[in-house]
Sequence to fold (597 residues):
Amino acid sequence: MKTKVLLIAPYRGLRELSLTLLKEQPELDVIVKEADLSASIPLIQYYEQQHIDFIISRGGTAKLIQQYSQIPVIEIKVSGYDIIRALTLIKDYKMKVQLIGFPNICEGVLSIAQLLDIQIAYTTIDQEEEVNNAVLEAKNAGAQVILGDTVTVRTAQENGLQGMMITSGKESVLEAFHQVLDMAKVLEQKRNQLSIFQSLLSNYQDGIAIMDENGEFIYCNQAFSSFFGKVQGDLMQSRFDLPLEVNQFLQRLIQLEEQTYVPNEIINFKHLTTTINGGRFKRAGKYFFYVTIHKKPLDKEMESGIQILRNHLFPTSFAQIVTSSPHMMDVLEKAKKLAELEKNIIIYGEEGTGKRFIAHSIHTASDLMEGDFIEIEINDSTTANISRIVHLIDHLDRATIYLKGVEYLSLENQHVIDEMANNTSRVRFIFAFNQHPNMLIKNNILHKNFIRKMEVEALFIPPLRERMEDLEELIRIFIAKYNAKYGKQIVGVRQEVLKELYLKDWSYKNVTELKDTIKEFVKMTYSDFIEKEQVKLMGLRENEKKSFVNTIDLTKPLDEIEKEIIAQVLEEENMNQSQAAKRLGINRTTLWRKLKG
Fold:
C-alpha cells in the first residue's frame, strides 16, 4: 500500500522539480500543489479529509502548516548545496544584497557565508506580516537585491527591488521523500503495536480505564464497563454514575501529588468484594490517571497474610546482572547451571541482595520460561491460610514458583508445602530466605525436615558490602534509570560522594538500599553531578541510627536487652510487626510473645 502525501510547493520551480523526481518514487502516492504561506491553509483543510499520511513543504510554509494540521509535516530543508549555489551566484554582485528570511533560512545562510568570507546584511522575520516592513527598511538602507524565499522575493519585486530566491535542489527534495518513507515504516510499526495493545486491553479480564486531568474517561476496556452493567461506548460518550466506593477511590487518585501509585484497596459494591488500584503518569506535559479493577472477587485467603503475583516482573536475564565481583560471578555461574536442571532451589541472602531478580533470571533461562513466574510472599503466620496456594499449584502446568516467607507458616503448613514441592511435576519451586536455612531450623522457625526431604540446591547471594567492586557500576545504572524517570541529565557523582558511598555498609537493604539512595540523590540534584550536599541527608540518617544503637545498655539482663532491640527495630519499621519480625529473623507469633512477655 502506497504512502499518501500532500506536497505543497511555495513556488513553481519546486512544483516542477518534485513532479519530475516523483517518477522514481513508486512507493509514494503524492498530490503536488503550489501555494505559499497562508494560501496553503485551505488546501490543508480540504486534503485532511482525504486520509493524507504526510505533508511535505518548505520554509515558512512548512512551519505555518504545522500550526494548522495534525498530520506530520516533513520540511524540505534548505541544504548546504542550495545555500552555496545562491552565495556563489551573488558573491561578485556589484549591487548591495540583503538577506531577509525566517530563522531557519537566515541561520544556514549566515553560517556558510561566514565560512566563505562573504559579508551579507540580513533581517530575520518570524511571521509573514513582517516581510513588507523588512523589505522597505532594507530598501531605505540602500539594498538593491533581496535574497530570501518565495514571499520575500515577491514582496521585493512589488517594491521595485530585485529578488533572488534560495531554491531547493534535487538533493533536498529527495531527502524529504526518503524521510517520508522512513517515517511511514515507523508509523506502520506503531499502528500495528497500537492495534495489538488495543486488542490485548479489550480482551483483558480485569477492568482498565484511563482518565485525563479533569477526571474524564478517555479510555476503558469492555471489562471495566461490564463491572457497572454498561457497554464500552456508554462510558466513552458520557460520564455515568459509579458506585460511591469507586468514585471515592477515583477522587483520591486525581488528587495524587508526590505519590504516583495507589496500591490495592478492597472495595465492596453490588455484593461483590474485589480490589482496585491505580496510578498517575505524565505524557506530553499532561497528567493522566489509570485505574484497574480486578475481575476475580476477593476471598478470605486474599485478605490474609499471603500475597500472590503472577508474571509481575518484566523479563530479566543473567546478562542484566552487573558484577565484576569474583564471588558474585561464581553465584551467577552456579545459577546458570541450576537453570538447566529441574531441581528446586533455595536462594538465601540478606534483604535487598537481588534474590528475586536472580530467581526470575533462572526462570527465563530454563525450559519453563514459556510458563508463568509466580511470586508468593507470606507476611503473617497468624492469618496465613495456604489453601489458596494449594489450589493455585494444583492447576499449574510449566511454571516457576518463587516463594518467600515459608518460615512464617506453621510447621504443619510447612510440611504441606514440602510435600507439594516434592510431588509436583513441571513446576519448579524457588524458596527465598533472608537467613541461612540451617539457622532458621536451629531457631525452630523452619521445620527440620524441610530441606532434608527435598531434592533442592542452595544458592547464597552475597550482601553488597562483600561485592563493593560492583558499587560504581550499580550507581551508573541507577543514575541512568532515574535520569529517564525524572528527566535529569546527571552524568555521575563527585569523588567525595563516591567515597561516602564506599564507607557505608548497606546492611539495611543492600542493593535495594543503594538504588533508593541514588533515586533520592537524582531527585534532589539539578546539576550535572551529584554533589556532597546531597550526602548530608544520608549522613544525618546514619548518625541518628547509630546514636539510637549507642543508647542500648549492654549491662542489663539479656531479656531486657532483647526487648530494647525489638523496640528499636519496631520503631525503625514504623511499628510494622511483620517487617520487624523479618528483620529479627523470627516469626510474628514469636515477636508477639516476646512483646507480651
